[in-house]
Amino acid sequence: MIKINNTFPLTVLLILAVAICYGQSVNRKITTADYAKWSTLQDEAISPDGLWISYSLQYDYGADTLFVQNCKSDRKLIFPSGNNAIFSSDGRFVTVSDPEKGLILQEFKSGKVQSFRNVSKHEFFAEAKYLAMLKKNVSSNELQILDCNTNKSYIFPDVQEFTISREGKIAVSTFHEVRIIDPAENFSEKTIAQDSAESFKNLCWSENGSAVAFLQQLPKDTLAPDNHRIIYYNLTDSKSYMLDGSTNEALMAQRIIVRLSKPALTFSPDGKRIFFAITTPHKPFTTEQVEIWDTATPLEYTQNKYRGNTNYEPKLAVWSVESGRVMQIGTVENPKAMLTTDKNYAVCFNALRYEPQYEYDAPADLYLKNTHTGKETLILQKQATSIGMMGTSPDGKFINYFRDNNWWIYDIEKTKRRSITAQIGIAFKNKENDNSGSPTPYGSPGWSADGKYFIAYDQYDIWLLSPDGSKTQKITHGSKNKVRYRICTDLYQENKTHNLDNLFAPKFDLTKGLILEVLGDNMASGYYKWYPNGSLKKMLFKESGINRIQKAKDAEMYICIEQTSALPPSIILLNNTGTFSKVIMQSNPQSKKFDWGQAELIYYKNKFGDNLKGILYKPANYKPAKKYPMVVLIYEIFSHGLHNYYNPTEYDSMGFIPSNYFLDDYIVLMPDIRYKIDDPGMSALDCVESSVNAVKATGIVEENHIGIIGHSFGGYEVSFIITQTKTFAAAISGSAISDLIGSYFTYASNILRSNTWRFEGEQYRMTSSPFNDWNSYQRNSPLPNAKYISTPLLSWAGKKDPTIPWTQSASFHMALRRLDKKSIFLVYNGETHTILTPELQKDLTIKTKNWFDYYLKQKTGTDINDIP
């Protein structure tokens, strides 16, 4: 029995009674004016010694701020509008870029602050003894090297580019010379190349710092692309070597070129060979007055123009510097080349071999080429070449590839291949991938560092597989409880940069154990450490969203982000043994003052009996006896985001934020959808209606006030679903395809392929062209079924959308206009697939909310017909 103190004010008793009855706080309701209080936590980092963290708070309604915070004392440095915090390797300093002050250098111990203007690139080196800064001035550029111990600066004028070797020597290029600066010799300078006519660029050090290579641009002419020569300088004997493609017989007057997003020069591990790219010179591509589109070409018109002639494809070549021997690795027959780790071999292929074909990445016949002798051997025919399907061991002895639903190993020395997973009896093919197209694996993070084991994933677990097939070891046991284990690949610095000329070759030192990211079937998440003795120890694992882990380079300390649907993201500091963790920074602490919604998983089945999940957000200050309007957001799979925290905001690129709705007396449902091949629309209809019916059965929904919204593929699903059901009182579709057949044949010059691959190899999940299954395309298209729509539709598109032409939405709107259906279409000039301009984001977000308020809440304050 509760005894009531009669001295309590009656209003307090009433508030307590309400709180007890509904289990809710007495916090107030959020208004639009409160949105400005929320920020997004981004760009977190931890110093190498684990003593400091940095992070940014980015505001939709105000200026962003960068913070640098001590992990022990909570001392906090604040940099308004700052960004890009970089810690020195010894943890003594941090640099921050400021739009007004320039580059800020802060020393932690003394608190001393310096700023340097016009810095375009900077780098700590020599164990943070020095800070190198390239300063872009109007009249001339300069390299400033600051001695961080003495505060003395060394200035080198006219520097255009610099790069630092592991030993701390600095190679710099001016317009007309290259110099080596040696800080260990009192910053002595040595000129290693000089030419008053042409410039030098693309400086590159060998791994051991004994040699430097770079390009010299040759005089321009009427042909493309620009031509270069390579200069190699050996610091050990002070000898220079030069390679000029125009005079080298092996290159047959081909041009040495610079490619986009790939290195211009790469050293072999021993530093004695240089890998570079060449191509046949040609007249610059121009716009023809008459374009000739020919069905006989391997690629569609625009791409065929640039990529259809393998003579003009960039090709890898190698220069053995001391002998002067040059060999083409890529050829006209097989222009693509990817090197093994030791660079002794390359996998070469012709991406046009099986064109025209209708997946995004074409299969190819793979040839193994010895980069010393030039000997070439066919090892695979019609092999998938997409990312994640192929790689190499750290020692370069093996090539791994996925084929016929299993992982295979090709032994380069023995020229033999074997499947290393077929005998296990476990599915390594990703059965959760229900796209059309070639089968894909659950994945592989790489190899053990010693090359003894290939590492592969099944649905839940991690396997170590010896390349000769003699040993298979499952090192986790997640399948028992439906817990998924994966290696935290981002923690391993040596694997973060991937040269696109190389086969995928990440490596992991098993003797040091592994940090694993873990996800439960109930969406609990976190991290475990696996030890070489086979044991697993929990670092942090709970029913919340835990991700973005980072390690201090020189300490066993980590940071990660934790959040739930109701708890804003926080930074957690933890160790690798699970004995220590604490919240070191909590974003948006003001959220505690407001009512908030709660997310939960719902479970349902589609008509085929498949078990599915979805996220259900109940409104802030939810009352079990009350019924609420509901908005259903759809795409494909949402349940993995159960613990995502959504800031309330009017600025969203797709116009919809769940928190804006569950904070305003709406239920929000985000169901998972499982697809049947050749029936994408019907699959979405089935799963969405099944999920809606599951929520209806709880009695919490106003059944006549349910809305649906989606963008891109989700927009297509919305447009189709409302042709098949009267469940929804209002619908919103953004950037959507409305006519599957018309979209199948859509071609845009700025996209690599026409839309065929989206249908026959991706999320539209069709197995063939419309000519082979016209009925399936028509059955799953919104446009042919538009006459059955009774749901008011608000649609929108960006007029410069390169992915889905805005005319698809326009055609659907015109159909609804002709059928006298309620439809409003918003066309955003200058915008693309999503809305990027802030004021237009706000416009779309407000119009979206008004649409649902009008039809689902009967709000009369906004006349939806007045939307321009």
From TrEMBL:
Residues 692-858 form the Peptidase S9 prolyl oligopeptidase catalytic domain. It comes from the Bacteria. One of its GO terms (biological process) is proteolysis. Gene3D superfamilies: alpha/beta hydrolase, TolB, C-terminal domain. It comes from Flavobacterium caseinilyticum. Keywords: Hydrolase. This is S9 family peptidase. Residues 352-423 form the Dipeptidylpeptidase IV N-terminal domain.
